[in-house]
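== Folding the chain ==

***
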Amino acid sequence: MTSRRLLILPIRWRLTLWYAALLMAALLLFGGGLYLGLRQRLYASLDEQLQDRATAELATVRFIVRDGTPVPAPIEPDPADAELFRRVFDGNGGAVSESAHEGGEVPGDDAVTAALGGETRFSTVPVEDGESMRLLTAPIRTDGRVVGALQVGLDRDEVDGALATLLGILALAGPLVLLVAAGGGYLLAGRALAPVAAITTLAGRIDGNDLDTRLDLDLPDDELGRLARTFDAMLARIEDAFARQRRFTGDAAHELRTPLTLMRSQVDLALARPRTADDYREALRELDGDLERLTGLVATLLTLARADAGRLAPDRALFDLNYTIASIIEHYAAPVAAATISLVDASTPTPLVADEDLLTRALINLVDNALAHTPAGGSVTVGCQVEGATVRLWVADTGGGIDPEHQARVFDRFYRVDAGRARAHGGAGLGLAICKAIAEAHGGTIGLESQVGQGTRVELLLPTSH
């Protein structure tokens, strides 16, 4: 099976096949090692047995003198030891005596010549019926001279039979063990992958109407357990994103509908009966105010949409934030005088590489918000300073403050602490959301500190260069 075909299989089958392949390799190594090790040990034991028997036989060899030369005497057969084959040769390599062998004649070999040369040698020769015999041929010495050779042998049928039995057991048991283990591996793989199957089933079933569904699998803290918990956390984030998107869409539709409804009412009223030119001009002025509010709201929504898409790219340039704050305070001089509110400049020279237009917009939103919530006789402070590689920009007021339960959500879109008051001042609940988007577009952060009855302070932390 090619690697491409293997990848087509389900992961459960792939795991099972890999497990079976590794197990088969392990069984082959184990079986082969066991067979070869036992074979070597049995053959070594057979050689040791032959060595001992040859030593015992050499000790019983008798000699006779022929033509003045001692030669080995024939060995008498021992009926009690019929399994041992014995053969005696004289100094010329001729057989002096030979015991009978049930398997037929035992052929000679070159070991006799080697033994007459003083060398002891093991050899294996074939006999009838496909069997073999292990032979040991040793020199026969007297007075330090080699006068013949002794050859003893044992059939290897018992050893070969034991090895054949072992090989048969391995050949039969190996596939059975492999089959059972592969079946167990398939079941274990299925059980191990059950959370993945559950995730797949749930993911295929979820749509926008049941994002509150969770796996809630009771798994240990392993890879699959972390995967299941990560999937649940992802569903929670998606559910929250969908909920915020729905709220955003609903609030945007509501905010857009309000000025459109007012505009429609003004048009209907103006067309209800003939009017003077001054009446029409007044109606157009009112329509112009509503259009201005509508245009601003749409621009704000587009800015937030660009921020969500990562396309709110600041046009960075070097400027001094101190001058920008001074210009904004000068712009608000008349309104704050009329409202008897002090607008304090607490800025210091603050060179900054950023988008001045975006930061001006953020400051105007913050100052508008602070002035809207500061009573007569109160004060609003705008300041900035450099702190290392960071610029701190803040707007603080002495208004009524924000309750702790609202502080975590004031940067959410369309969120109003006091909806009625915000609408009275023309607010849509997007000012702080825009400020947050501008801060994040510059690689900075925005935060809020507030105490009920004492006031609120909003701070932006921005890098001096980015």
Q: What stands out?
A: The chain has four domains: 1-55+158-192, 61-155, 240-307, 314-463. The two ends are 55 Å apart (CA to CA). Residues 420-426 have pLDDT under 50 and may be disordered.
